[in-house]
Amino acid sequence: MSVAFVPKKLRGKAQINQETIQRLLDENDQLVRCIMEYMQKGRAVECVQYQQILHRNIVYLGTIADASPNLAPTTNVPTGEASTLTAQNGHKGFTQNGQ
Asked: pTM for the complete prediction?
């Protein structure tokens, strides 16, 4: 089960730290790999549950990011890749020079 699930009685009390975020990012990496594997095998139906968990994790991470505007990015994204992400997603957090 995803680490994004928090029982109702603990909601709002969970401590969000770098370790928690990294676990979600690692889980997302594994989910993407599973989804790709199932898709390559032509088993799209089986990957739906993984897509739902991935979606929930991404929404959860986005909520954390929105609530913490002072957090600086912790990963180094090459300028070319950041520019591609900006162009594809319309995200205003990256610019051509990586600032």
From this structure: 0.59
